[in-house]
Amino acid sequence: MQNQRTPDLIKLYIKSCAIGFAAAAVFVGLLLTFDVVGLRGLVAGSSAGIVAVVMMWVFNGIVFAGVQFGIAIMAMSEDDDDDDEGGTRSPVTLAEPIPVRSTDHRG
């Protein structure tokens, strides 16, 4: 079997997912700690409270991981040169107006 190396982009994605899900765990923990809109009471008073907490963590983790990955990808861009004066597009020539005659058909 060949020794396969994990591509750098996959490593970046896995790292971003781990950071995103860790941030989501902190976020959900803070929501429950500060009892935002009575959430802690709802979770503690329900028989499916643990399911609700896991769902909040997973769904927020998906969002936070996506944001983290987007930030990481955008940070990889190369810096533009400061001496650029714009693109190489040729200037747009404006059309000349053409006079149009109108006939009145309202007899």
Structure, described:
The N and C termini lie far apart (91 Å). The protein has a domain at 8-75. It has helices at residues 8-33, 39-44, 49-75. The chain is an all-alpha fold and 107 residues long. 55% of the residues lie in helices and 0% in strands. The longest helix has 27 residues, at 49-75. α1 (8-33) packs across α3 (49-75). It contains three helices and no strands. It is flat.
Parts with pLDDT < 50 across at least 5 consecutive residues: none
Radius of gyration: 29 Å
N-to-C CA distance: 91 Å
**Coarse shape:** flat
What is the chain-wise order of helices and strands?
HHH
The number of distinct β-strands equals: 0
Report the portion of residues in β strands.
under 5%
Measured as a percent range, the helix fraction is 55-70%
Q: Biggest sheet: strands, sense, closure?
A: none
What is the mean pLDDT? 88
Q: Which structural class do you get from the secondary structure elements?
A: mainly alpha
- Output the number of helix runs: 3
Write the topology of this structure.
Elements: H1 8-33, H2 39-44, H3 49-75
Question: Could you list some keywords that capture this structure?
Answer:
3 helices; mainly alpha; about 110 residues
Overview in brief:
With 107 residues, this protein is mainly alpha-helical. The protein has a domain at 8-75.
